[in-house]
Design brief:
alpha+beta, disordered N terminus, 240 residues, 7-stranded antiparallel beta sheet, two-stranded antiparallel ribbon
Length: 240
């Protein structure tokens, strides 16, 4: 049996299944999955990201991550076997010495939201040697939390925000040749739903006798301290 046949064979057989209804679109779900740097935010056990290969999630690209709790961390990888958004993704996750597992993630629209299903089964290592009833129970318990986390990210639009290159500053050369003030203006006005008011100065910088002083601008819309309507805000200056 060749490598391709062996990989295909792992997609058959019993899998531990978890299902959750999310209040977002299937595109929101796949926006999270496509951002490799969000992987530890929704995968239970993953503690940090070390590298996301170019081309992730397509083309067999890998995520380089760590499992465990510091200082007992194990470096390993997850490879994308199939990427068919917004319908399904198949991942091959390594977590030695526990072993390797294949994860199938599917999403379908339902009303104003969607249904997401995660199916997982061990394919190599000690975990694959466990009886299916034991490994299945453990995986369902873990993936219930995984789906909770994935849901929180997808419903908040975390993947869509990070995938906007202008918002996260990853577009090559996007700030080349700009002055500091121009960069600041660009960063504050390219966020979703941003307005020109977001780029207005909120501080005033003065220099006297070699000392630089930074104060809140008198007309700043947002200022530190108690908000309007709070008792402290109504007290005359110097009475506290």
């Amino acid at each position: 049996m060749g490598p391709e046949q062996r990989e295909a064979s792992t997609r058959r057989g019993n899998r531990a299944r978890n299902v959750r209804v999310l209040h977002c679109t299937v595109e929101d779900v796949f926006d999270v999955l496509s951002d490799g740097w969000l992987y530890p935010s929704w995968v239970v056990g993953a503690s940090r990201m070390r590298h996301v290969e170019n081309g992730w999630p397509a083309g067999g690209a890998r995520l380089h991550h760590s499992f465990g709790v510091w200082p007992l961390l194990i470096d390993d990888t997850t490879r994308c076997l199939e990427w068919d958004p917004p319908r399904k993704a198949v991942l091959r996750a390594r977590g030695w010495p526990i072993g390797e597992a294949e994860i199938l993630i599917e999403a379908q629209p339902r009303g104003d939201g969607c249904v997401v299903r995660i199916q997982e089964r061990p394919v190599r290592g000690p975990a694959a040697a466990l009886p299916a009833v034991v490994s299945g129970a453990l995986l369902r318990w873990r993936n219930a939390e995984t789906l909770h986390r994935l849901g929180y990210l997808a419903e908040s639009g975390a993947g869509a925000r990070r995938s906007n290159r202008a918002w996260n500053g990853q577009e090559d050369g996007m700030h080349e040749g700009m002055t500091p003030d121009e960069k600041r203006h660009d960063q504050l006005t390219t966020a979703p739903e941003a307005t020109e008011e977001d780029a207005e100065a909120r501080v005033v910088t003065t220099e006297e006798d070699g000392v630089t002083r930074v104060d809140i601008a008198p007309d700043a819309a947002v200022r530190p301290g108690p908000g309007p309507g709070m008792p402290e805000a109504d007290e005359p200056p110097g009475t506290r």
